[in-house]
């Protein structure tokens, strides 16, 4: 299958390319001619190794030019790419178990790993029952012809679950449609520069800030996440020339805390077009403190582009691309029920009023485009009117066909060409407002953390059996929440569980603990009725429930 996303491998533009951040504070540059040649020589080596069109190739590589070249080499060989995160958030054994779970599902023809990550990859392959050794990137003597491609461009694995990862099947049609949507909504023009520190294994970093500009042979300034954490001002200085970026809300707040105005002396960011915000609930306070830091250097709040998306819809669903200050609202938390009107207590445009507006506030994520239809439905799948809370459903060519190898999720479902997201949301003044997950996962620092995994860990720490624990992801305005239902009257275990969850999820996840008998409701097949339990609790109808503060 031909694709504009890899056309540049045959027609590279010299002079433009990728500037990769070096550890010494400088940048290393390679143009598209060099990158295309290296990718096609690496493709030749992959083909010699037996990789064929339609195969899955898993990459365990740090963000460097070898990763860039190998990624496109897999595409040049006609294969499907599956990028796996380096061990940033997990210790060795947990990381190996996570990678092994991905490999078991992906069944790759080849696992590629760098020297520094080869031992992890080798152990994960053994754990997944795969024979052989990880393949080290190398180049053949000749450049390979770009091979015909199979149906799938990517396997995009959810990143937070160690027990049951799910690989989203992203077709070439999905990826092209979403990349075009991103470029259109961002106002991307030929010659624009993109700057990013986002990891390439995450959909926003990979598709939004890597594949989309490279397909257009634009200039990309690419940092690793650890570069950003050590020196966030380095990312901001990119916008003396860069026009586009994307990051989760915490990154903007982190800059406001860590960067001093004197570090930006002489900087002019007035040419900055778009600072996309997504991947987790958007905190208006975080945006405002960032805007106040950068405003003396030419930043405008109209550059903020709040957005909503998920891997199951390739990436982008909506973005507020209008030239206006983002709209923040505070819904009444006591009136949040599916199928019911959302009562708005306060609202304002981003500005000084936003300082301190953290818990309970949510920011609008724009109006859907015609080619990405978005509806809100009730529990029976019936479309709801504007202002009513329900589940967000996404259609159009960006909606992926499903999870790889028959994997399933309990909240996100694929039906009739649409993605039933498992996210709670509503429309207000024409914009989509997203409250977050209610079901099998929550977003923490851009990663999906699955409640089944948390249930297993809680059962272990508390000493309660797993069948006596149910965790629910709770949507709220501008916050992340979990409700823990435990079939017990004992409270001695609660302190240890709170501390474990704090270490795993951070301090910004609101936890509600409910104990009692007869709490856990299940379907006829034995699955927990998570949202039903939470809504009964909210309505005061869950008999025997006792909330522990």
From TrEMBL:
Gene3D superfamilies: 3.30.300.30, N-terminal domain of ligase-like (3.40.50.12780)
PROSITE patterns: AMP_BINDING
TM ranges: none
Keyword Transport: no
Keywords (A to Z) from UniProt: Ligase
GO biological process: fatty acid biosynthetic process
Family statement drawn from the similarity comment of this UniProt entry: Belongs to the ATP-dependent AMP-binding enzyme family.
UniProt feature coiled coil, ranges: none
Gene Ontology cellular component terms for the protein in this record: plasma membrane
Start and end residues of each AMP-dependent synthetase/ligase domain: 25-404
Pfam families, alphabetized: AMP-binding (PF00501)
SUPFAM superfamilies xrefs: Acetyl-CoA synthetase-like
Protein name according to UniProt: Acyl-CoA synthetase (AMP-forming)/AMP-acid ligase II
Keyword Ligase set for record: yes
One GO molecular-function entry: adenylyltransferase activity
Top-level taxon of origin: Bacteria
């Amino acid at each position: 299958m031909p694709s504009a996303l890899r056309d540049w491998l045959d027609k590279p533009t010299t002079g433009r390319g990728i500037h990769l951040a070096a550890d010494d504070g400088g940048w290393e540059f390679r143009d598209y001619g060099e990158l295309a040649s290296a990718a096609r020589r690496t493709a030749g080596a992959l083909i010699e190794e037996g990789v064929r069109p339609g195969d899955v190739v898993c990459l365990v590589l740090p963000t460097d030019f070898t990763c860039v070249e190998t990624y496109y080499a897999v595409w040049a060989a006609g294969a499907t790419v599956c990028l796996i995160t380096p061990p940033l958030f997990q210790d060795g054994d947990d990381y190996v178990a996570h990678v092994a779970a991905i490999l078991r599902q992906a069944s790759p023809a080849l696992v590629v790993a760098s020297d520094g990550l080869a031992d992890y990859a080798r152990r994960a392959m053994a754990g997944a029952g795969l024979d052989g050794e990880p393949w080290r990137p190398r180049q053949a003597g000749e450049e390979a012809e770009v091979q015909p491609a199979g149906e799938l461009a990517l396997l995009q694995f959810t990143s937070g679950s160690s027990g049951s990862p799910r690989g989203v099947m992203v077709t070439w049609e999905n990826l092209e449609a979403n990349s075009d949507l991103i470029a259109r909504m961002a106002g991307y023009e030929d010659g624009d520069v993109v700057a990013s520190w986002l990891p390439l294994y995450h959909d926003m970093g990979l598709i939004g800030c890597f594949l989309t500009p490279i397909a257009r042979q634009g200039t990309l300034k690419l940092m690793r996440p650890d570069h950003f954490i050590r020196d966030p001002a380095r990312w901001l200085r990119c916008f003396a020339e860069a026009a586009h970026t994307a990051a989760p809300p915490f990154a903007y707040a982190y800059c406001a805390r860590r960067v001093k105005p004197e570090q930006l002396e002489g900087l002019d960011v007035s040419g900055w077009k778009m600072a996309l915000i997504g991947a987790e609930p958007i905190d208006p306070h975080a945006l405002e403190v960032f805007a106040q830091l950068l405003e003396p250097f030419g930043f405008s709040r109209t550059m903020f582009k709040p957005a909503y998306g998920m891997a199951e819809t390739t990436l982008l669903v909506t973005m507020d691309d209008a030239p206006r200050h983002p709209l923040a609202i505070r819904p009444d938390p006591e009136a949040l029920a599916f199928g019911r009107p959302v009562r708005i207590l306060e609202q304002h445009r981003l500005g000084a009023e936003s300082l301190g507006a953290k818990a309970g506030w949510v920011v609008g994520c724009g109006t859907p485009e015609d080619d990405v239809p978005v509806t809100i439905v009730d529990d029976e799948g019936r479309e709801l009117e504007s202002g009513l809370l329900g589940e967000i459903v996404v259609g159009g060519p960006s909606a992926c066909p499903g999870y790889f190898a028959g994997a399933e999720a309990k909240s996100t479902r694929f039906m009739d060409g649409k993605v039933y997201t498992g996210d709670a949301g509503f429309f207000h003044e024409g914009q989509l407002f997203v409250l977050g997950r209610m079901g099998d996962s929550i977003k923490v620092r851009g990663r999906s953390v699955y409640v089944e995994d948390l249930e297993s860990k809680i059962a272990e720490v508390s000493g309660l059996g797993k069948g006596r624990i149910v965790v629910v992801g709770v949507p709220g305005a501008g916050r992340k929440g979990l409700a823990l239902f435990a079939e017990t009257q004992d409270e001695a275990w609660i302190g240890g569980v709170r501390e474990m969850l704090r270490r795993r999820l951070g301090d910004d996840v609101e936890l509600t603990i409910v104990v009692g008998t007869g709490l856990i409701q299940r379907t006829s097949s034995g699955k927990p009725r998570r949202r039903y339990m939470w809504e009964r609790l909210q309505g005061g109808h869950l008999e025997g429930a006792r909330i522990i503060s």
